[in-house]
Every structure is written in C-alpha cells, then in structure tokens.
Write a structure and sequence with these properties.
Distance between the termini: 78 Å
Oligomer: single chain
Structural class: mainly alpha
Shape: globular
Strand content: under 5%
Length: 306
C-alpha cells in the first residue's frame, strides 16, 4: 500500500504502521538512533502482534480501531500475560505512543488514542554497593573459573561505570592514551551511541592487564569472555551469597555503584555524566539525589548533638 503524506488513510493497519516506523529508525542507525532502539521497537511489534492475536483473534487491526480501550487492554495484557512490571509496561506503551504519533504527523490518523492516557513511570530506588561490599567481592577466594570471570567483569564495571553490553564488547582498541598520559577507556555506548571517556583507575587497570594476557591465545578480540546478561546475573547471585551481601546483585548495579561513589568522592556531575555516556545530565542527577539521601540518613545520628 502506498502511503502519501498529508492524505488521511484510515485503512492502514497497525502492524504496517509499526513496520514503517521501524524502517525509519533502521535508516537512521548511527545518525540519531542506536541499534538498541531498533531492537526495542522490534520487540514492541512482537508484543503488539501477540496482543492482537490473543485479545482480538485477528492477525492485524486498522489504525482506525485504535482507541482508549485498546490502550487499556494492551497495558493489561503486557502486565498480566507477559508478567512485566509497571515501568517496563510503560516503556512499551511509550513505544506504541511514538508509533501512533508517527501516524498523526503523517495525517494517517485523525484521533489520538493516548489523549487521556498517561505513560507515567513509578520512582525506582537505584541500589548500589558500598565500598566495604565491593571489597568483600574483590577479596572472595573463588575456585570456580566462571565465577572468577564474572566477578572480575563486575568489579571492572564498578570502577568504570560501563554497562553489561559495553563490557561484553570491550576490545583492546578501546584502551587509549589520554590527555594526561595515562590509559583511558574510550567506548561508544551500545545503548545510546554516545561516547564514554573513562580514565582507568588502578583496580580496573589490574583487571584489564590480567585479561589482556588471558585473551592473547583466543581467536576472539573481546577482552573479557562473559556469557549472556541473564547468566551473568545468575552467577552474580552466587557471588553475593559467597560474599554475604544481602542485596539483589545484578550487573547493572555496578553502573549505579560507580556513579554513586564518584559523586560521593566529589567528582563533578558533568564529569560523571560524560563517563557514563549519558545524553542528558538530568539522567545523572538521579545519582546525585541518591548521595544526598545517603548523607541525610547518615547525618540523622548527629541531629541530637548539643
């Protein structure tokens, strides 16, 4: 079906519209969009497709069928049938809203089914490790190689702020000499396509040096051979048990830990934002709030000093 900008067409199907939006993103990879964005919308399409088959017993729907009830049903389906929490559900609804807006901008839709719907997420407490907890993991005497590798990758992330995917893709070529004559990591984040520039701290340098020699005889040029994120998080649960850390240890917690510790040590929020590869500094400000709350709680014991 040929679509003409500015011509109202109520017979465009939802999946057809979704495909066109995904195609638009695909043409702009590395030019405003990252691969992760394309993956996210492709996943959204699969959820929409399954939802239509499950709730409407059809292969597709016309965009003229989109209304407030459709949005509510999709929200319920994602939460109950896919077993996603509220914030994850809102992410998929925001993706659907972007697809619907694409139709509106092209004058293919004359009404907004999201008009009375808010895609508001709930506040999330970002957990992080204390310096003592990091030390407990570092000092673990582990004899299982798979856990040693995951422990090292996690500690590296705690001292660089890199996300799982960026650690898994880390190569020798990401290690460069910085303006201070020291070694830095320069990584283009997989999620956002934003460049992160991170001075390599001594603990991180020790781990990198270990794996530079470890991977010399391997065909892969990846620095640390870690498995899938799901397996990594499963192994981290074993490590947290061994280290007696009563927290839901995940690889992403390392990133939170780096940001929180850096701000606690008075590294400027602008520098932390640059190292984390955030597009907007307000994303980094979440961690500043965490450190302020931590200070407030710790200072409560001094309230009664006279």
């Amino acid at each position: 079906m040929q679509l003409i900008r500015g011509e109202y067409r109520s017979d465009i199907s939802l999946l057809e519209l979704t495909d066109k939006y995904i195609h638009q993103i695909a043409t702009m990879i590395d030019n405003g969009y990252a691969d992760a964005t394309l993956t996210r919308y492709s996943t959204t399409k699969r959820h929409i497709e399954r939802f239509i088959k499950t709730k409407y017993r059809k292969k597709d729907l016309s965009i003229s069928d989109l209304n407030y009830d459709f949005i509510l049903r999709f929200e319920s389906y994602v939460k109950k049938n896919r077993n996603f929490n509220h914030n994850t559900t809102m992410k998929y609804l925001k993706n659907l809203k972007a697809i619907v807006n694409f139709a509106s901008k092209n004058d293919w839709l004359d009404k907004d089914p999201f008009k009375n719907f808010s895609c508001k997420t709930e506040p999330v407490e970002r957990d992080f490790l204390t310096e003592d907890e990091i030390l407990a993991i570092r000092n673990l005497d582990i004899n299982i190689e798979r856990l040693v590798i995951i422990r090292d990758a996690f500690i590296l992330a705690c001292y660089t702020g890199l996300a799982y995917v960026d650690v898994s893709l880390l190569k020798r070529e990401n290690i460069v000499e910085g303006i201070d004559g020291e070694y830095w990591l320069v990584v283009k984040r997989k999620k956002t396509n934003v460049k992160s520039t991170i001075p390599i701290l001594p603990i991180a340098a020790h781990i990198i040096k270990k794996y530079l020699s470890y991977t010399e005889d391997l065909e892969s040029d990846r620095l640390i051979p870690i498995p899938s994120n799901q397996k990594v998080n499963a192994y981290l649960k074993e490590i947290s048990t061994l280290a007696r850390i009563d927290k839901n240890l995940t690889f992403h917690m390392a990133r939170h830990t780096f940001a929180t510790l850096a701000l606690s040590y008075k590294v400027s929020i602008e520098s932390v934002s640059k190292m984390l590869g955030h597009k907007q500094i307000r994303t980094t400000q979440i961690y500043a709030k965490i450190t302020e709350e931590k200070i407030s709680k710790e200072m409560q014991v001094m309230r009664n000093i006279k």
